[in-house]
UniProtKB/TrEMBL annotation:
This is IS5 family transposase. It comes from Yanshouia hominis. Residues 10-82 form the Insertion element IS402-like domain. Pfam families: DDE_Tnp_1, DUF4096. InterPro entries: IS402-like_dom (IPR025161), Transposase_11 (IPR002559). Residues 92-251 form the Transposase IS4-like domain. PANTHER family: PHP DOMAIN PROTEIN (PTHR30007).
Length: 255
């Protein structure tokens, strides 16, 4: 394989961080995995390029075996657990939330039982990523819904259980439910009032400018072509893809 195919493989420093967290270690229940690093690099390659699994370069292993293992880790929640482990001591002085649309590729339609978390818009099928980001601009939680799902409907799920000092979001999140939930969690609400709100709320305009950090994370996520657009038929596979991209973002900072 050409060296250019390997340019985004995990670095030695990143692997030293990730390896102890992976299943298949000596002393753990089950078999010992000898190719964890090659497997992770293969999954990264697929999601970075957006290529079909059948086009996986053979240096990364047999595509069917790699794909099956990816789904097995997905079903066991391993990808999400890896991300949670990497999120070490997040900075929750500010918690920023937002959502972004992803076009759905035609290959993602037709899942068994019907399309999953996709909705039709003028431009075709669409899905949505809801994201929570900490003060350092690092992703800490993601939710997948259909594209027509209102951003504010998932806000409580994004912030539930997170002990943050300030909640930053655009005026699309200005609902009585979100405000009440944030205040009950002792969060300072930094959300502009909707224009039709009878009593306009005051908010910290200077602090609100920092909200662009969550938008930056969406840019990083969608640099991997396996995420923008959505190729995965199953919501669980697409959510795992987002988790894996977040893992790569955290590794790049931690290494």
């Amino acid at each position: 394989m050409e060296n250019s195919q390997h340019r985004h493989d995990i670095s030695d420093k990143a692997w030293a961080i990730l390896e102890p967290m992976l299943p298949g270690q000596r002393g753990q229940w089950g078999g010992i995995a000898e190719d964890n690093r090659r497997f992770i690099n293969g999954v990264f390659w697929i999601l970075r390029t957006g290529a079909p699994w059948r086009d996986l370069p053979p240096d990364y292993g047999k595509w069917g075996s790699v794909h099956q293992r990816f789904r097995r880790w997905r079903d066991k929640g391993i990808w999400e657990k890896l991300l949670e482990t990497l999120i070490d001591d997040p900075d929750y002085e500010w918690l920023m939330i937002d959502a972004s649309h992803c076009k759905v590729h035609p290959h993602a339609a037709g899942a068994k039982g019907g399309n999953q978390d996709m909705s039709r818009t003028k431009g075709g099928f669409n899905t949505k990523i809801h994201l929570a980001v900490d003060s350092s601009g690092m992703p800490v939680r993601a939710i997948i819904t259909e594209g027509t799902r209102s951003d504010c409907k998932e806000a409580v799920h994004l912030i539930d259980g997170i002990d943050a000092q300030n909640l930053l979001a655009d005026r699309g999140y200005d609902t009585s439910e979100i405000i009440a939930f944030a205040l009950s969690a002792v969060m300072n609400v930094v959300i502009p009032s909707k224009k039709d709100r009878k009593k306009q709320r005051e908010y910290d305009h200077h602090l609100y400018k920092i909200r662009h950090l969550v938008e930056n994370v969406f840019l990083w996520l969608k640099r991997w072509r396996g995420i923008a657009p959505r190729y995965a038929k199953n919501t669980s596979s697409f959510l795992s893809a987002v988790h894996i991209r977040c893992i790569a973002i955290w590794l790049a900072v931690l290494e």
